[in-house]
Amino acid sequence: MVASARQYHITTFGCQMNKADSERMAGILDTMGLTWTDDPYQADVVLYNTCTIRDNAEQKVYSYLGRQAIRKHEQPDLTLIVAGCVAQQEGEALLRRVPELDLVMGPQHANRLQDLLEQVFEGNQVVATDAVDIMEDITKPRRDSTITAWVNVIYGCNERCTYCVVPGVRGVEQSRTPAAIRAEMEDLGRRGFKEVTLLGQNIDAYGRDLPGATLEGRHQHTFTDLLTYVHDVPGIERLRFATSHPRYFTERLIRTCAELPKVCEHFHIPFQSGDNDVLKAMARGYTHEKYRRIIDTVRRYMPDAAISADAIVGFPGETEAQFQRTLDLVNDIAFDQLNTAAYSPRPGTPAAQWDNQLSEEVKADRLQRLNHLVNTKAAERSQRYQGRIEEVLVEAANPKNPTQVMGRTQGNRLTFFPGDFATLKRQLVPVKITTVRPFSLTGEPLQVAAIAG
Ligand code: SAH
Ligand code: SF4
Ligand code: F3S
After folding, report:
1. What does the alpha-carbon distance between residue 309 and residue 333 come to, in Å, rounded to a whole number?
2. Which of 69, 109, 310, 383 lies most in the core, judged by the most C-beta atoms within 10 Å?
3. Phi and psi dihedrals of 127, rounded to 5?
4. For 8-33, how does the pLDDT look when each residue is reduced to its tens digit (9 = 90+)?
5. What domains lie within the chain, and their CATH numbers?
6. Res 85 pLDDT > 70
7. Among 287, 291, 290, 345, CA closest to 317
8. CA–centroid distance, residue 52 to ligand 3 (Å)
9. CA-CA-CA-CA torsion for 392, 395, 401, 403, nearest 10 degrees?
């Protein structure tokens, strides 16, 4: 039996997928009668939901674990859990490295946390990293927000990008059924949530694995069909989705996004490199020309769409001229936001074995040059908002200025404006933008009647 006074804490690293998993695991711990604490050093059950996308992400968790392991010697009933992608990658090896651990569980096991913890409370040390069919979610996630929510639509990834650990740690693609996704969204709508972000590592792959996926050779359950199917869920005013893979970002999907009014005009489509030979070595399956055509098509249907992406610099063998082509692409497309990273060799990935690795100095230098360009471009892109009226979904008080509230525009720009959070909470407010910064905006709220007239 679990004593009801036990407190738990979860620290989450990595992507939105991990954040969504953490919310579901927190929901399970709540149901088990534990209570949340913000302080990882007060908690009786500590869970690190980890990320291994780059080496620095992985190393972070070891330093936290070191401190908790020391604490466990003074407090033997402390339960120490490592979940997520490092857990999946390291498995048993993690127990040898940190023998104080009670539970090591891969991301596919997140929904089984109760079952696994019960085995721990019986005195076992448990490793759960085998590939499984992900259990349909039966617990209520403990969501960070009461206004915006993540909803998983597809787990895993079937791509084989040569630098990436995700297929190894998240397993093969598993789509949830349209009915389960819609039911979760209807529940969110009833509870007052206004915005849903549909999640998948490669969201356009949605549905390929569902039974009856094809009928007479045509896909029955594409992501485009799913968007149309969930678009009218009552109460949900905004729909977002991430992450899109250029290989699967079709004109049909783009047209559907343009037609469905609740779909926000913000698309996150990583390109990774602007050079075709580097893209080939990465096994991305498209050329920079194809990527540019996709963005052209998006802008043809939605001239003002916000575009963000991810890019890697210093991939093995990348020459200065090849890096220059990434700069060219960034210069030409002018992203609203770009997540940039220096290539990090990862265990078990093909590219890590190659002998044409670049030095840390070259990678750091390229990263700095790319970031400089990204900031300049984002500042230019921001200018278009000056004086415009943008619809902002109010999500919180400005933590730095309580006389202001904050939220996001359709295009996902963080926006501040004067107002009282208690009054404006979860409202969609038209805001006239008065100050633009590269990645955020400030404005004045308008009366709804004023814009209607
Ligand atoms: N599924 C998404 C991205 C998932 S990982 C896609 O295909 O685009 C998130 C980002 O981390 C990637 O887009 C990539 O830019 C970065 N990344 C992945 N592996 C990396 C590595 N080994 N080194 C540096 N960055 C990496
Ligand atoms: Fe990794 Fe490529 Fe899959 Fe994205 S598509 S998660 S980069 S393997
Ligand atoms: Fe990291 Fe795993 Fe996400 S490696 S980026 S937490 S899928």
Report:
1. 11
2. 109
3. -120, 120
4. 999 999 999 999 999 999 999 999 99
5. 7-128 (3.40.50.12160), 148-384 (3.80.30.20), 386-452 (2.40.50.140)
6. yes
7. 345
8. 6
9. 70
Q: Is the CB of 20 under 6 A from ligand 3?
A: no
CA distance readout (Å), 380 to 201, 229, 335: 29, 37, 10
Q: Please tell me the distance between residue 191's alpha carbon and the centre of ligand 3 in angstroms.
A: 29
pTM here?
0.93
- Closest of 358, 311, 345 to residue 165, by C-alpha: 345
Pick the closest to residue 175 from 149, 142, 213 (CA basis).
213
| Confidence check: pLDDT of 2 > 70 | no
CA distance 435 to 414: 12
**Average pLDDT for the chain:** 94
What gap in Å lies between CA 148 and CA 194, rounded to an integer? Answer: 6
Ligand 2 pocket mutation, candidates 161, 203, 208, 269, criterion most atoms within 8 A of CB: 161
Mean pLDDT of 306-320: 98
Q: Which residue has the tokens 């919180």?
A: 396
How many residues belong to the chain? 453
Q: Count H helices, E strands: the chain? A: 16, 21
pLDDT (tens digit per residue) in 412-432 = 999 999 999 999 999 999 999
**C-alpha span between 301 and 305 (Å, rounded):** 9
Closest atom of ligand 2 to 157 CA is 3
Nearest CA to ligand 2 atom 5: 159
Q: Is the per-residue pLDDT at 221 higher than 90?
A: no
Residue 52 near residue 86, CB atoms below 8 Å: yes
Q: Can you give the pLDDT at residue 5?
A: 73
pLDDT of res. 135: 77
Judged against a pLDDT cut of 60, whether residue 140 lies above it is answered with: yes
**Ligand 2 centroid vs 252 CA: distance in angstroms?**
22
Distance 346 CA to ligand 2 centre (A): 13
CA atoms within 13 A on the CB side of 321: 2
Ligand 1 close to Cβ of residue 292 (< 6 A): no
CA distance 258 to 319: 38
Task: With a cut of 60, say whether residue 54 has pLDDT above it.
Answer: yes
- Residue 94, amino acid: L
Neighbour count for residue 371 (Cβ, 10 Å): 13
161 Cα nearest atom in ligand 1: 7
Residue to mutate, 11, 19, 59, 85, ligand 3, most ligand atoms under 8 Å from C-beta: 85
